[in-house]
Amino acid sequence: MKAIKRIYLSIILIFLYAPIATLIAFSFNESRSRGVWGGFSLKWYESLFQNREILRALNNTMLIAAISALAATAIGTAAALGVNSMKKKPRKIFLAISNIPVLNPEIVTGVSLMLFFLFTARLMGRGGLGFVTLLLAHITFNIPYVMLSVLPKIRALDSSVYEAARDLGATSFTAFWKVVFPQLLPGVVTGFIFAFTLSLDDFVISFFTRGAGVSTLSIYIYTSAARRGVNPEINALSTLMFVVLLLLLFVINWRDARELKKNIRNRRKDV
Amino acid sequence: MSRKWLAGPYLIWMALFILIPMILVMYYALTRTVGGQTVFTLRGFQMAFEPMYLHVLWRSVRVAAISTAICLLLGYPVAYILASREFSQKSTLFFLFAVPMWMNYLLRTYAWLSILENNGVLNNILNAVKLPSLNILYTDQAVILGMVYNFLPFMILPIRTSLMKIDYSLIESAQDLGANPPTVFRRVVFPLSIPGVISGITMVFMPAATTFIIPSLLGGGQYVLIGNLIERQFLSAYDWNFGAALSLILMVVILLSMAIINKVDKGSEGGTLM
Are A78 and B7 inside 8 Å of each other by CB? Predict the structure, then answer.
């Protein structure tokens, strides 16, 4: 029975990884044609790093991911703290609206933001879609995910710790900054990483809210794949993105594992 | 202490970037500009129910439903095995199933192009063992394959979570009471895993029904699902009013079905992502 289980899991894993492996293998292929193996080569990586269009897209992607994750973490953490001290009804409404971008099909979010940006551009008589609108869109869909990672930490807070700090003479700002915030920090960092990866990964919303000249890696891949089919430079690019993703996942998992160990240790101390 | 004011910035943000955009979608969906004059109309909704577009809608639902069913058939056994006692402690194995989910789904879809092409990897392998070539790129099958591939982890993970939550003593007592393994599964394990199945179905069906990347890369330029139809109205046909009406219909259908599923699923938490 165990053998059958293993074989089944292996088949599914092969199905899940075969395309990724193909992509990685062909990124090192000397020959341009996909079906044939022409020997090992790094030439697609070389031409990747000389491709101006790709480098500009990479630059945009990283900038937008970093800025939007930072902004979303700031706004989202503040909002999570604020919403937690609201009464039940306003809190429910607030969270429901905040969840709209999470529940809505991505294409609807993308379209609605595009209409909004073009509408405001027409009202102001200038502007239009471009880097800024792309950034605003990314902040918008990142914030709810930051809140989702911070809110549980806020709910787990023990308010007596804050009150003890106040009793010992701390101002409310100091008590928050020195006592409350460090307890929220793991959630805030997780939220930031979450937002950063979501932003890196996004295609649909970017596709609708970018300007004609602005492109991200996802958009570059889509437009060139839709136009020309398979392109070895994209294989090289995908391989690099896959490696970065793996590294990010390892960091997140390693952090979680460390936190888990810490929690277990603390619990042991309590006993 | 009250920190309500901290929610202020996001309140303004939500009004600007969530609520007003939604209102604009409704505005465009319900109006039409003819000769510089904007008039109220239900034309967009009427158009959506013309046979040509109903056909697209039906095809989107059908393709998404088939993909969801295949994901469930393939994914349930995986979740079951991963949750079983021999495998549940193997976190690396679980990690292997979760990694593809985090990979850019554009890349996951794109990867299939080089496999399915006429002179691609699949046909080279088939030819090498003297089997006839398979030309499924730019057909329904390729689109369904792409969807199953993309969304399978979203089916496996919540089902695994709900299976792991089952108290093992329930299974033991069923066995003690004389149930054979199929009966234990049918009467105890499967009913208790339904919350996971429901959230798996939602997490596969919703994106499958609304994606436009998978059909446009693996289905080709002529292959239209509702997502492609909306995209075209905004980026090539420039019928924003019709596009907005379609978006509104899509949004209402998706949000309603989520609400219904949440009602059915009340009290039991579904699975989480990771």
Answer: yes
Q: Which of A100, A115, A251 to mutate to test the interface with B (most CBs of B within 10 A)?
A: A115
Cβ contact B95–A16 (<8 Å): no
Q: How far apart are CA B158 and CA B196, in angstroms?
A: 5
Is the predicted pLDDT of residue B119 greater than 60, yes or no? yes
Q: Using the structure block, give the residue that is written with the tokens 């009913």.
A: B191
Tokens of A128: 């239009």
Q: What are phi and psi of B273, to 5 degrees?
A: -70, -50
Interchain proximity A119–B103, CB inside 8 Å: no
Dist. CA B250–CA B261, nearest whole Å: 16
* Contact (CB, 8 A) for A116 and B247: no
DSSP label at residue A29: B
Taking each helix axis from N to C end, the angle separating A181-201 and A52-84, rounded to the nearest 10 degrees, works out to: 140
* One-letter amino acid of A51: N
For the CA atoms of B51, B56, B58, B60, what is the dihedral angle to 10 degrees? -170
CA–CA separation, A235 and A28 (whole Å) = 9
User: Are A75 and B10 a contacting pair at CB < 8 A?
Assistant: yes
Token pair 């202020």 is at which residue?
A: B8
Residue B138 — left, alpha, or beta (φ > 0 → left; ψ -120 to 50 → alpha)?
left
ipTM value for the complex: 0.86
Name the pTM for this structure: 0.86
Q: Is A10 on the interface with B (CB under 8 A)?
A: no
* Run of H or E including B38: strand B37-40
Query: What integer best gives the mean pLDDT of chain B?
Result: 88
C-alpha span between B205 and B223 (Å, rounded):
19
User: Is B104 close to A241, i.e. CB distance below 8 A?
Assistant: yes
User: Residue A240: which of A58, A56, A37 has the closest Cα?
Assistant: A58
Question: Does B243 contact A111 at a Cβ distance shorter than 8 Å?
Answer: yes
d(CA B265, CA B273): 17
Residues A70-95 have pLDDT tens digits of 999 999 999 999 998 899 999 999 99
Residues constituting chain B: 274
* Angle at the Cα of A136 from the Cα atoms of A131 and A139, rounded to 5 degrees: 125
Nearest Cβ partner for A143 among B10, B106, B111: B10
Q: CA of A61 to nearest chain B CA: how many angstroms apart?
A: 13
pLDDT tens digits along B1-60:
568 889 999 999 999 999 999 999 999 999 988 888 888 989 889 998 999 999 999 999
Please tell me the number of Cα atoms within 13 Å of A96 on its side-chain side: 8
Angle between helices A232-270 and B105-116 (to 10 degrees): 140
Which contiguous run of DSSP H or E holds residue B39?
strand B37-40
Residue B266 has pLDDT above 70, yes or no: no
Chain B CA closest to residue A163: B1
Which residues 6+ apart lie within 8 Å of B198 measured at CB? B261, B264, B265, B270
